[in-house]
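ok so i was messing around last nite and threw this chain in just to see what happens. nothing serious, just curious
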Amino acid sequence: MITIEETNFHNAYARAVRQVIRDGTPIIIGTKKEPKPILDSPAVIMISGKGIRQIEDREIHPQFPFRLVDQYCEEFTYDFQRKYLNAAIETLKFSYTYFDRLVNYQSRYSVTDQLKELNTCLKIQTETYNPSNRCQAITWHPHLDCNSDSPPCLQRIWVRYAGDNKVDVHFDWRSRDLFTAWQVNIIALIDMLNREVIRPNNCVIHTITEFIDSLHIYTSDLAEAKEVRPIPVSPMER
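result:
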């Protein structure tokens, strides 16, 4: 189990990369047609302090390979979802998006916009000063995902009022690509939550905690991942 507490978003990434390389278990995931060798470890990662601001400012580590951060954040908006639903089937990259699972969650009896429910739940918490453990949104549909080749990695979002207009945010992941996806996933999800849930209730984020069943680096990315280094931090920022 990897456990990291950081006030620097970039060094949380660098430390996680180095620990998975050092302590991760080599296994093969994927399908028989497309096996994917990885180094794997369960993990808990908590970010606070300046690290929250770095996420909100869409900063990424200099050695993080994905650079299209603004375009990715756009995928977590209602406007993008409307365009995606109206696109031709053959042009779609995925059969679902996280945003679609969150705002169009279909049960047997209804369709629920879980972001609006999160907003309402947080509003009640701030008005009553009573933290709730029930303020959550989920992505998993057993009848769609149990036998799918590409089920959602993100499983659950949890938001709780921490007093003084602060909230704690938790993410639960069944699977997490550390080297090429970890930073940009958090940036886009926090951008979405701030816009739709947290700031409309005059709150700010206190901590972000990730619970990850399988934090991994693909073997094909190992050579590049081994070059990742922590960012020097001024003693004034610690």
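not much to say yet. The chain has nine helices and ten strands.
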